[in-house]
Amino acid sequence: MGAPRLRLPLLALLCSVLLLSGCATAALSRPADGRERIALAMSYIGNDWQTEAQKLVLAEAGTPPYNGRIDLRTLVSGADVEKQIAQLQQLVAQGYQAIVIYPISPTALNPVVRQACDRHIVVIAYDAEVTEPCAYNVHINQRFAGRASAEFLATAMHNQGGVALVTGVPGTSVDADRTSAAKEVFARHSIKIVDSCPGMWDQATGQQCMSQMLAAHPSGIDGVWTQAGYGAFLAYQAAHKNVPPMAFEGDNGSRVAIAEGQVVGISYSSPPYTGAYALKVADAILRGESFPHVIQVPLPLVTRGELKLCSDVQRGCNVFPPNQVTTGFLASFYDGDLTPELCLSAAQSAHPCPGQVAKPPQPRSAPDEATSRA
Predict the structure, then answer these.
(1) pLDDT at residue 243 greater than cutoff 60
(2) Which of 268, 286, 315 is the C-terminal boundary of a domain?
(3) Are residues 92 and 236 in the same domain?
(4) N or C, which end of the chain has less CB nearby within 10 Å?
(5) Using an 8 Å Cβ cutoff, are 228 and 298 in contact?
(6) What is the pLDDT of residues 202-217, one digit of tens each?
(7) CA–CA dist 202, 265 (Å, integer)
(8) Do residues 100 and 58 make contact, with C-beta atoms less than 8 angstroms apart?
(9) Are residues 106 and 134 in the same domain?
């Protein structure tokens, strides 16, 4: 009978010494007030999209009923995969119930994501993908985004000439999927890729990138395919050159240029509300609901005739007056079916929209080529 009395103190000692190993997971899984402990684990944040996406997550967490049941913590690792892995390991050890993540790599995080799943922690990636099967993913069809925007551009170029590419953040699934799909389209139409440069989804970097390509190729660029592309448009203006047809992302400056006829273009987008929607899904799963592990949302895809310049998204506004938002502001932050509780002020301030109550998420995925006019 003496051995059992010795095991309990020994276990307590081990748990206190090995706190980070997971002995404390069960004890830390719910705070004293009963709120759900959810972490927002962001990686690269050096652009308008990431800033806006974070604001929308914070606004969603402050919207009823989530404001009464979610305890949200935010971490940023930067474009450092080892740091993001270390942060995720800490969150697992600390017993968070769910992790909403923007992954810097689709595969490098898989072992720690698996560890989280083994401890019944819900992991949901938004926009960029995690390939570990136990994780959930909320995003557009990135290959469709690359393909549809490139097809528009090829048609605008009359299926001939040379195209320059301003790509995104190397190593992410978003950049890889979009760029490879666009290149396949250009190859099929015998359009030559004149040059390519990583714009890092940042307007200033994209402008510098495009300026360098313009200097290297003063002629021969007949179209420009971009990710977060208003900087590329500004490079043409600064060089006093005629702007060729362009495929842009959903930044407001690009949409204003298209709407005003300054450029023949199309605007596609990863909507920045995907992080907020992932938070809603995490809450629903923690409350016992079932969701598919891949949740696609419709691809915002608009040309000049589909742009509506005004301020109230609930009335179909999808491009905003330049004096109300920055040029890099992502105009595609709203979906009347998925995130009707969000508004322009939430995307700008991170504060919940007055008088709104969040609509529960839907346990389904949009078809592969579903589009929206957001």
Answers:
(1) yes
(2) 268
(3) no
(4) N
(5) no
(6) 999 999 999 999 999 9
(7) 19
(8) no
(9) yes
